[in-house]
């Protein structure tokens, strides 16, 4: 967008992409920070220049990528860890019981944002990213030595989950300081690291454990994370002044906006389902007679595909609408689960195709949902609004894997049909909720960019 843009041409962050004109690299985009609430008819204006590119913005983006590798990489590797623990340290526990270890980790991963978001708005990045990185690395060192169930729960789930929430929330909010019109692309690129970490860590686990043992495998992963965390702390910084008037806590005002309420409901439902295929695709393949070596590679294949699913939709969403892309991707996941995974059986081709395609279509659950939330608020409130949203959504991540484990254990065990129905129906409901949120925001016109 040219620098001679007039005041009449200024656009809100919520719809900055609607013009179809993307800014040139390194140029400043003047966006009117206007949030219109149809219920209260109040409008708040604050004009900020977003770099949308350039050396500094891209260095922050690379720093964000490095910051997210440890927590989101491990989050996307829980299938490999769960399968290993089920056969080794925790072999006397059921799959559902072991699932609680990773559910609590995922729950705290997002629930901590309820306080981390407002703290970010009030005090900035460093007070969160540094202790978060130290705490997460400490949790990996503890994980390497765990033998008992309670040790995994306290050392990894609690310490690791809370530390990860400080990293994730502050990093996603920092990206919002540097990008507006390109926020979908920027957030998507940063979150591709979850898919990449989900490739690297399972391969390391599968390759190194037979050679150096479980403990040293986890320590090696921790050493890798140290390097990426150091780069993140060095490169990342905020740009806008802190909102010192912001109080920590739950943002009740956001729920006066029907779009926000419906969006949270949609994300909640998706988060009940999104971790089901990554968590159970390996055990599904093993239960259907697929070669064990290949079964353990399926999670890496799914995560490799999700790199595309996190990065590419951001480019499309910034031009054609973030909610539009979320609706299409959720619908795609629904069809893949109910039409492909449901009937895959022992077909290696079908299972592999599902893993690839689900990875591509499900990536938006990580890359675009934060951008949808940011579209409904001012940047200076983004941390708080995001923390509120994911504080609630975290309860879905807490319940998702254990509930799935209980469904799987029904009818004498191995109830994969029930598990797949559960996952597919949830995605269908999420598709409907995103559609309603879009309708409240822009009406029912099919080709409307929103």
TrEMBL record:
Q: What are the leading ranks of the lineage?
A: Eukaryota, Fungi, Dikarya, Ascomycota, Pezizomycotina
Q: Name one GO molecular function term.
A: transmembrane transporter activity
What positions does the domain Major facilitator superfamily (MFS) profile occupy?
Answer: 60-450
| Keywords for the protein's UniProt record, in alphabetical order | Membrane, Transmembrane, Transmembrane helix
Could you tell me which Pfam families the record lists for this protein?
MFS_1
Residue ranges annotated as transmembrane are 57-78, 98-116, 123-143, 149-173, 185-205, 217-238, 259-281, 293-313, 325-343, 349-368, 389-407, 419-440
The entry assigns this protein to a family as follows: Belongs to the major facilitator superfamily. Monocarboxylate porter (TC 2.A.1.13) family.
Q: Which organism is it from?
A: Venustampulla echinocandica
Q: What is this protein called?
A: Major facilitator superfamily (MFS) profile domain-containing protein
GO cellular component terms listed in the entry, alphabetical order: membrane
Q: Give the location in the cell.
A: Membrane
Membrane topology per the entry is: Multi-pass membrane protein
């Amino acid at each position: 967008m040219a620098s001679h843009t007039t005041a009449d041409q200024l656009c809100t962050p919520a719809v900055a992409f609607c013009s179809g004109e993307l800014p040139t690299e390194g140029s400043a985009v003047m966006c009117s920070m206007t949030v219109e609430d149809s219920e209260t008819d109040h409008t708040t204006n604050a004009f900020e220049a977003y770099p949308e590119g350039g050396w500094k913005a891209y260095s922050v983006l690379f720093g964000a990528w490095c910051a997210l590798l440890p927590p989101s990489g491990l989050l996307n590797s829980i299938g490999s860890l769960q399968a290993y623990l089920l056969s080794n340290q925790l072999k006397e526990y059921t799959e559902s019981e072991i699932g609680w270890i990773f559910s609590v980790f995922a729950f705290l991963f997002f629930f901590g944002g309820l306080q981390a978001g407002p703290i970010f708005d009030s005090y900035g990045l460093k007070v969160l990213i540094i202790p978060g990185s130290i705490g997460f690395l400490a949790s990996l060192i503890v994980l390497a030595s765990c033998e008992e169930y309670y040790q995994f729960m306290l050392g990894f789930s609690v310490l690791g989950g809370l530390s990860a929430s400080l990293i994730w929330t502050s990093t996603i909010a920092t990206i919002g300081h540097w990008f507006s019109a390109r926020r979908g692309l920027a957030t998507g690129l940063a979150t591709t690291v979850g898919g990449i970490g989900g490739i690297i860590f399972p391969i390391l686990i599968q390759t190194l454990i037979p050679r150096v043992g479980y403990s040293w495998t986890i320590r090696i992963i921790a050493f890798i994370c140290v390097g990426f965390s150091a780069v993140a702390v060095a490169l990342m910084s905020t740009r806008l002044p802190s909102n010192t008037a912001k109080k920590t806590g739950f943002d009740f005002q956001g729920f006066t906006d029907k779009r926000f309420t419906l969006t949270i409901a949609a994300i909640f439902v998706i988060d009940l389902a999104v971790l089901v295929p990554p968590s159970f695709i390996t055990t599904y393949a093993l239960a259907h007679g697929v070669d064990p070596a290949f079964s353990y590679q399926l999670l890496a294949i799914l995560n490799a595909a999700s790199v595309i699913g996190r990065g590419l939709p951001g480019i499309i969403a910034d031009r054609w609408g973030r909610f539009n892309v979320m609706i299409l991707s959720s619908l795609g996941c629904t069809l893949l689960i109910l039409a492909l995974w449901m009937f895959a059986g022992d077909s290696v081709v079908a299972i592999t195709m599902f893993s690839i395609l689900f990875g591509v279509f499900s990536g938006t659950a990580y890359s675009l949902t934060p951008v949808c939330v940011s579209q409904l608020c001012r940047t200076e409130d983004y941390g708080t609004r995001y923390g509120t949203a994911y504080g609630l959504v975290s309860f879905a991540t807490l319940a998702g894997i254990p509930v799935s484990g209980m469904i799987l254990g029904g009818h004498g065990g191995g109830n994969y049909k029930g598990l797949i129905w559960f996952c597919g129906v949830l995605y269908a409901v999420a598709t409907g909720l995103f559609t309603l949120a879009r309708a409240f925001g822009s009406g029912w016109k099919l080709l409307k960019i929103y």
